[in-house]
Structures are given as structure tokens and as C-alpha cells.
Design goal:
By secondary structure, this protein is an all-alpha fold. 77% of the residues lie in helices and 0% in strands.
Length: 402
């Protein structure tokens, strides 16, 4: 009995404390994933069934959703008066409230308004999340730690999608109820986080200004193209499943669940693999695969093959860890907070324009949207070959994993 109690206490002593940075990022990631997954999983069906959306309206909505992302650079100014942890809490609260009230506004302009509120919280949180992750994890451990966080978020998404599937297929729930439950649950977890913020002394005091440097040019270009082709996936791949192949809420949710079951298993492995093979090889594989996936979307004629493409597409996005760790390795440690807002805004330049323009192209020929995605992935592949294999940086003496 004593041996069992000793081994149990030893096990619990290895677990991170509830105020640790990893726990904070993990729980905040759960809130973000749960609320945004619920919003995203229901969006196409809710928009088509309740607000009579076509490709043009869904493109406009997604462009509006990305405007706060374009303005993410303003986070640098907010950080003059708030700490990054406090801004993360406020951002998560806005995200949760926006999702909670979505079902009460089943109209074009109502959905536009709730989307903006939700999006402000989502994009400010993502900006701060990337900044804190790259500051709190060492260059050596960052790929593996980000992979662990990806797996945790995938588990949260999986639980969310399972709950949505049960709500609609078994309990005959409506959109108002599901949106409200997910939003309020996220708000409750956020309230707990507000009282358990980690107190971390950063090794490098962050610049409280916007950072835009010539030596980060390749990262900026890859970030811009990443935002462009990601929008094609986020906006039009899901819309293709609903409009062309007639997928309902339960089918779309089941597809999302499958995506996250795969990520739950592969997320940590992908992170560790990137740490071994390096960012150039990982990005090369990602962009090569995406070229084939986008061409597949343009040509697909069966619902089953479209589902396979959707799952493979989502799997490649797990490799986006490589772009983050590439920046961490080339950046001045003091630039991270100021650079994240700028890079997030660069990522969303195309994201604001592409949905509305491509929404109009969609009305003419949906295949052209995906051929454009293949072209963007091809350009990304070319640029990824300029990512260095080896980096010249000195590991700071106090650059420790927390």
C-alpha cells in the first residue's frame, strides 16, 4: 500500500500545476477550439437553412470575419496597457459571447454582426496565443509542445463535435440551444482561467511596438500565402460538402470528428517529427500535398472522395507548426510579441479579400476556386525551398521549457 501511495504521489508530482503556462495554454485552447468548432460546424447549415445564404453571402460573411484578423496588429497597442494574459482572457470572453448569441440572429445582417463579435475575440486570442507559446517554450521543445497542444485542441474539438452530433441526431436540438450551451461553457472555463493566470518572468522583455523587419521577409510571404489558401479550405471546402453533395449537420460533424481523431493521435507525432527533420522538409511535404488536394477538390464528383480529400486537407494543416517554429528560430526573442500581431495581419490580408471575390467566382464555376488554391500552394512550395536547413542562433542560458 505504501509503495502504491508513493508511486501515485510521484505520478502527480510530475503533472503541471494548475497555474502553469502549459495548463493555461491548454485550457485556453480548449475554450477557443470548443466555441469556434461549434460555430464553424453549424455555420453552413445554419446559414443556408435559416438565412438563405448562397456562395456570395457566405463569401462576404467570411471576408467580414477576417477583418479583425487584418487588424490584429493593433494588439501591440493594447499591450501597452494590458498584459498578454489579461488580453487573452478578454479575447476569449468576446469569442464565447459571440458564439452564445449566434442562434438568436438568423438573418444575413444578424449573422454578420455576431460573426464580427466572435471574430474579434478569436483573432486577438490567436495572436496572443502564438506569442505566448513561442515565448514560453524553448526552441528545442517548441515543436513537440505545440504538437501536444494541437492534440489537446483536437480532443476538445472531438468532444464538441460528438456533443453536436448527439444534440441533433438523438435529442433533436435546435441551433439556438447548441450555440448557447457551447458559448456559456466556454465562458465558465474562461472565468476560471482569469483567477489562475500563470505568473511567468520572461527571459526577454518584449518590444511594445509593431515589428516589421526585412530579414523576416520569407516568413511574411509564407504567412500571406498560408492565409490565402487556408481561406479556400475554411470557406469553400466545407461549403462544397453542403451545397454540392448535400451533407447535413450530422454528416459534417462526423467528418470533423474524424479529422480530430486523426489529429489527436498524429498531432504530437507531427510536432516531434518536425523537430527531427526540420521546417524545410515539413513545409515541402505540406505544400506538395495541398497542390494535389486542391486539384482533387476541383475534379471531385462523389461525396465519398470529397470526404477523403477533406480529411487529408485537414491533416496537412497540422504541419503549420513548422511555420511557427521557423519564425521562432530566426527571430530576435524580444520581437515575438510585436511580430505576431503584424504577421497575423499579413496572414489576413488575403483572407479579407479572397472569400468575397472567390464567392463571386464560385457562382460562375466552383472548380476555378480550387485551381486557384492549387496555384497558391505551388507558390508556397517554391518559397519553402528557401527555408534554411540549419539556423545560426545561440540558445540563451535561461531559455528553458516551462
Amino acid at each position: 500500500m505504501k509503495a502504491q501511495s508513493k508511486s501515485r504521489s510521484k505520478l502527480f508530482s510530475k503533472l503541471p500545476s494548475k497555474e502553469s503556462p502549459f495548463v493555461f495554454l491548454a485550457l485556453a485552447g480548449i475554450v477557443m477550439t470548443m466555441t469556434f468548432s461549434a460555430w464553424n460546424a453549424l455555420l453552413n447549415n445554419f446559414a443556408i437553412e435559416n438565412a438563405a445564404f448562397t456562395g456570395a453571402e457566405i463569401g462576404t460573411l467570411q471576408s467580414i470575419r477576417e477583418i479583425p484578423g487584418l487588424l490584429a496588429f493593433t494588439a501591440a497597442f493594447v499591450l501597452l496597457v494590458l498584459t498578454e494574459q489579461v488580453l487573452a482572457i478578454i479575447a476569449l470572453s468576446l469569442l464565447c459571447i459571440g458564439v452564445a448569441i449566434t442562434g438568436f440572429f438568423p438573418s444575413v445582417y444578424g449573422l454578420y454582426a455576431t460573426t464580427v463579435l466572435m471574430s474579434v475575440g478569436f483573432h486577438y486570442y490567436e495572436t496572443i496565443n502564438q506569442s505566448l507559446s513561442l515565448q514560453w517554450f524553448s526552441k528545442t521543445d517548441a515543436p513537440a509542445q505545440l504538437g501536444r497542444l494541437l492534440a489537446i485542441k483536437s480532443f476538445a474539438a472531438l468532444c464538441t463535435f460528438a456533443g453536436i452530433w448527439l444534440a441533433f441526431s438523438v435529442f433533436d436540438a435546435d441551433y439556438i440551444t447548441v450555440y448557447m450551451v457551447c458559448g456559456l461553457l466556454g465562458l465558465a472555463i474562461t472565468a476560471w482561467l482569469a483567477t489562475h493566470k500563470p505568473e511567468v518572468s520572461h527571459a526577454h522583455v518584449q518590444h511594445k511596438k509593431l515589428i516589421l523587419r526585412k530579414r523576416y521577409s520569407l516568413y511574411y510571404l509564407l504567412t500571406f500565402l498560408s492565409g490565402a489558401r487556408r481561406q479556400i479550405f475554411v470557406v469553400f471546402a466545407g461549403f462544397l460538402m453542403v451545397e454540392k453533395f448535400g451533407y447535413g449537420v450530422t454528416e459534417i460533424t462526423a467528418l470533423f470528428m474524424l479529422n480530430h481523431v486523426i489529429n489527436l493521435y498524429l498531432g504530437p507525432k507531427i510536432g516531434a517529427w518536425i523537430g527531427r527533420v526540420g521546417e524545410r522538409r515539413a513545409l515541402t511535404l505540406e505544400y506538395s500535398g495541398l497542390i494535389l488536394v486542391f486539384i482533387g477538390y476541383a475534379l471531385v464528383e462523389t461525396a465519398e472522395l470529397a470526404a477523403v480529400l477533406y480529411v487529408v486537407d485537414h491533416l496537412f494543416f497540422a504541419m503549420a507548426i513548422a511555420l511557427k517554429t521557423y519564425f521562432q528560430k530566426i527571430a530576435d526573442p524580444k520581437d515575438i510579441a510585436g511580430s505576431m500581431g503584424v504577421s497575423f495581419s499579413i496572414n489576413h490580408i488575403a483572407a479579407v479579400v479572397i472569400p468575397v471575390i472567390f464567392g463571386m467566382i464560385w457562382l460562375y464555376n466552383p472548380s476555378l476556386v480550387f485551381y486557384a488554391g492549387a496555384a497558391i500552394a505551388c507558390l508556397s512550395l517554391i518559397l519553402s525551398r528557401f527555408v534554411p536547413v540549419k539556423y545560426e542562433y545561440e540558445q540563451a542560458a535561461n531559455d528553458k521549457t516551462v
